[in-house]
Amino acid sequence: MTTHPMPSLRDERGIALVLTLFALVVIGALVAGSFFVGRIEQQTGTNTVWSSQATEAAEAGVSQIVANWDPALYNALPIYTGLPAQEFAVPTVALSGTVQFTDTIRRLNQSLFLVRSVGSRMTPGGQVLGTKMISQLIRLAKPTISVNAAITISSPIALNGNAFSVTGFNANPPGWGMCSPTDPGNTDDLVGIRSATTTGMNAADLNNVFGYPTKEAPNDPSVTSATFRNFLDFTFTTLAAQPNVKVLPDPTVYNGVGPVIDVSTTPNSCDKPVLLNFGEPARNPPVAGAVAECYGFFPIVHGTGVRTKFAAGSRGQGTLLVDGNLEINGGFEWSGLIIVRGQMKIAGNGNKITGAILTEGVDVVTTGAISGNVDITYSKCAVEAAVGGASLGQPLERGWTQLF
After folding, report:
1. Mean per-residue pLDDT for 357-385?
2. For residue 252, which phi and psi values (nearest 5 degrees)?
3. Regarding beta strands 368-370 and 158-159, do their DSSP bridges make them parallel or antiparallel, or are they unpaired?
4. Which DSSP helix (H) or strand (E) runs through 301?
5. DSSP-assigned letters across all residues of 115-131
6. Which band of pLDDT confidence, cut at 50, 70 and 90, is reported for residue 7?
7. Distances in Å between the alpha carbon of 206 and those of 171, 188, 194, 258?
8. Domain residue spans in the chain?
């Protein structure tokens, strides 16, 4: 019988070290795997935060364009045909030291724009960590104001003296190079005074009122309260509530109305926030000293007091909305639209209105009076420019689209 010797414990020396090392390797692998997964999740979360910040910045860029639509600048853009110069690049806006957006605007047709906004999340040193680009289609919403005469009224207007002139024959404001040539025929001419009742004209006024096909159009059933209040995409109220409307609540006289230059910019620009800067209706030539920086500024001005009154030597362009009565005393010049809910009184010498006047005359016997050396001329170009200045960009119903 063969016997086997008992194994010696010395033959198993070092097994504990091997097992310990194996265990350390396994544990190290588990820890490394967990650390790797955690690192990936942390980095993914950080990237998601950066991406979200870039997306929020891009959304802010689109919202900024819509909320601060600049009619003088954006409404004048040419239709985009692929040329880089036709696309307007808005200066980059920094929301913080590490988040910013850059907007570009393309005009696709007469009423549609494409706004693209690139949002960026960066390091304090300027290295880009994440970007997002989104786009939004913007529709140009224009007030549709029924202008069918140089003066449209709901009640008779008093015409005094023989120095005034009211004409519905279309004329371009002197020096306005943006206007189309007037028709030598009568296709773009209108009636001088149109009224829901009698116009107030008498035989002595026939030499001072002009128009086509007639000088006056009394008892016109198309002239209703809606003529002075409802403008399709807008009403008198919503038009007056637009951003950047210049509000004039004071019933006393406003002096010093005129264009103002901002010399703090390079080059100089029109200082639009100045309350009594209503743009520049004059042009050089023919008027020396006309402020070219404000040629394209056609603001909405809203007189909210019981009376809005302008002193001599004042001038402006755009859309003038008056809740109460409007009084103009000598040397006042306006190119564009004037819409008055109360009475209108124009007196003195040197008053010149180029465009159109609509006076509702709410709850008064007469809409007011025109006397003195007053020149009121219908201008299709001035009306269109005023409407353009009152037009806003509105997003289409569909939300923005992410491009990348």
Report:
1. 84
2. -80, 180
3. parallel
4. strand 300-303
5. EEEEEEEE-TTS-EEEE
6. low
7. 20, 21, 14, 34
8. 52-141, 149-389
Three-state DSSP state, 35: helix
Q: CA 43 to CA 40: how far, in whole Å? A: 5
**Any residues with CB less than 8 A from the CB of 277 and at least 6 apart, and which?**
258, 259, 260, 270, 271, 294, 297, 299
Quick one: pLDDT at residue 30?
A: 86
Question: CA-CA distance, 226 to 154, in Å (whole number)?
Answer: 11
Q: Report pLDDT digits (tens) over 126-175.
A: 899 999 999 999 999 999 999 999 999 998 888 988 899 999 999 999 99
Contact (Cβ atoms closer than 8 angstroms) between residue 380 and residue 188: yes
Render 150-217 in DSSP notation, one character per residue: EEEESS--EE-SSS-EEE-S--PPTT-TTSPPPPSSSTT--EEEEESS-----GGGTTTEE-SS-SEE
Q: How far is CA 27 from the centre of its chain?
A: 66
The yes-or-no verdict on residue 4 having pLDDT over 70 is no
> Is residue 57 within a helix (H) or strand (E), and if so which, with residue range?
helix 15-67
The pLDDT tens digits for 181-205 are 999 999 999 999 999 999 989 888 9
- Write the pLDDT tens digit of every residue in 224-233: 999 999 998 8
Give this prediction's pTM.
Answer: 0.82
260 contacts 279 by C-beta, under 8 angstroms: no
The sign of the CA dihedral 199, 203, 205, 207 is positive
Whether the upstream peptide bond of residue 213 has omega within 30° of 0, thus cis, is yes
Provide the 8-state DSSP code for 318.
E
pLDDT band at residue 67 under the 50/70/90 scheme = confident
The answer to whether 263 and 175 are in contact (CB under 8 A) is no
* 328-to-64, 314, 369, 380, 396 alpha-carbon distances in Å: 37, 10, 11, 23, 41
Determine the Cα–Cα distance for residues 298 and 242; give it in Å rounded to an integer. Answer: 13
